[in-house]
Amino acid sequence: MLLFINGSWVSENEAVIPFQDGGFLYGDSLFESIRVGAGRPFRIHKNLERLRQGLNVIRLELPWSSKELIEICNTFIAKNNLQDGLLRLIVTRGTITGSPWNFSGAPNVYLTGRSLPPLPELPVKLEFVQEKDYPIARFFPAIKSGNYLGNMLAKRDAEQNGSFEPIFVNRDGLITEGALRNIFFVRDGILLTPGLALGVLPGIMRDTVLEIASSEGIRIQEEAISSSALSTFSEAFISSTGIGILPAVWDGFRSTHKLTYHLRDLLEARLKTGK
Ligand SMILES: Cc1ncc(COP(=O)(O)O)c(C=O)c1O
Predict the structure, then answer these.
(1) Threshold 0.90, pTM exceeds
(2) Level-2 CATH architecture, domain 124-273
């Protein structure tokens, strides 16, 4: 695979990250996972919008325009002959000299990619974990920063417990999101998902699901969802760029996931066209 590093294309086994990279040293970085379908970056303008918002929050100026970044992604897809897969665009503070918090040199831009992860057995199992046990770097509004330690530890523990995805419950007892995915529930035919005000990542698939649901005339509520309300739901699913939609259950909860599978079919059809 050919990777992009600061304007150059290098083969995977020759690609290196400078030791003084602020992303490597301090997690001073942002990243975007971009879905590729039918050889096209799926809704990449949404990723770039989220990236720009994050750059503002971390006060980092990126000397690459969105048009240039799209061109780089398209070139990556062509060079690597990627039909369906994932791109990972990483922007870091740069190769730090002097005090890292004052560094104002050029950021580093990296682009890598991979094929889609294998589909797990459905439905996937969730477990609910406390955010206080897995401190995660929450910004309001959320940014997709390179600080994923809490997310990784929660995911690791969940998998060791036989679950697919840990779902965080914040200090107010409200459900926020998974370690790597957004969460949705269904109650009385209404699609529910935690609101962005909780610092939940505005997932590209979350947004796509909401768009599809709304065009299907499904009622949507983005609201605070208490973990004590779990018994009132008839369906649940998780969403992300890598997995699309996956129907989900937890201990003591079963579902036919009728609406979930309907939304999943519509989403998969869109992902196949890359638009
Ligand atoms: C914490 C978190 N929430 C939600 C998501 C889903 O976002 P997207 O749909 O853009 O992949 C991710 C993706 O990595 C994530 O890390």
Answers:
(1) yes
(2) Alpha-Beta Barrel (3.20)
